[in-house]
Amino acid sequence: MGLRFLSAGESHGQALISILEGLPSNLEVDIEFINQELRRRQGGYGRGGRMAIEQDKVNILSGVRFGKTTGAPIAIEIKNKDWENWQNKMAPFGQKPEDFKDFTRPRPGHADLVGGIKYNQKDLRNVLERASARETASRVAIGAFCKLLLKALNIEIYSYVLSVGEISATPLSDNPSINAKEAEKSIVRFVNPNKDQEVMEYIDKAKEQGESLGGIFEVVAVNVPPGLGSYIQWDKRIDGDIAKAMMSIQAIKGVEIGLGFKGATLFGSKVMDEIGYDNGYMRYSNNLGGTEGGMTNGMPIIVRVAMKPIPTLMNPLRSVDIISKEPIKASKERSDVTAIAAASVVGEAMLSFVIAHHILEKFGADSMEELIIKYNEYLDYVRSF
Fold it and tell me: Who is most buried in 96, 254, 292, 346, counting CB within 10 A?
């Protein structure tokens, strides 16, 4: 069956709730690792005031006993500390405070207007509260559980930021673990921390102008075995699942695997990864980013993701009041100047989920002991093919 998860909760509601179903039993759960992943998501220069309020930590409600998964669905709660300031404005029952105005000025680039039309909401706060990227805290917690499973199989996930707005950098190494370690030293998770000062000044300038910034990050998975995914149906292709997972992250507008769009400009001989054999099959390059025919091929999975600038601008753009239909300036909400560093951590979580899902779908194990036996047997089979 693989994995599936659901999440619920609003940006300023009481809490974020998520349920993860399908993890095998007896996976050791490192609660500090999960909370550290949440702290990583909250980092990055250019974040807004919300990050000074929230100190995200998980509360495991079910599915874990004495530090190990039981095989039952895992229920996770992340409380919103800001709920203290919003409980009258976001109350499930009762009347809306008279001094709290409806949100009627949709922001270009956000879910506000279309979501209001779709769900017939004249107070667009009912849209933006759920559409908010605050929801990604749940994804990072889910992804942390998946990372723990992958670590048990020696699969590692890394990420780093390649560009912020117009400022870009080339990775310092071909080794993604080295690049990730460098990124952890950077205040914006930049692949080259030596550019931090330049990037911070650039972000400060954008903030002064009431602007926001996007960027590009890269996520890499290493030690992934060949044969995850399938070519037999469109919805079994793992590269399709990866693209969908990344595109589902708020503000993401582009995804490429391996050379991606650059590969479309080259001759085929410059793109295809030639095959060799040295105590097992190998490739002389990884231009295709670890996937062929909808399946992993044993090379590192390399995914680059483009994030648009955040749609909330302190110098707001033109919009229309949905009640009066009069032209106005869009509403302003407390927001980040850029959240590309956080998005890269969310990207790690989503890639972890996709790979863990395909592993469990392929091997169908109910316990970690069973999974490790089946996984190692498969690796032996691959080496002997």
Answer: 346
In the chain, the amino acid numbered 173 is: S
d(CA 182, CA 190): 8
Tokens of residue 309, six digits:
């600038």
**Residue 259 corresponds to which amino acid?**
L
In whole angstroms, give the CA distance from residue 272 to residue 251: 31
Structure tokens at 239: 């590269």
What is the distance between the alpha carbons of residues 4 and 354, in angstroms, rounded to a whole number? 10
pLDDT tens sequence across 46-69? 876 655 667 899 999 999 999 999
DSSP per position, 109-148: TSSHHHHHHHHT-SSTHHHHHHHSGGGHHHHHHHHHHHHH
Kindly report the CATH class assigned to 91-384.
alpha beta
375/353 Cα distance (integer angstroms): 17
pTM: 0.96
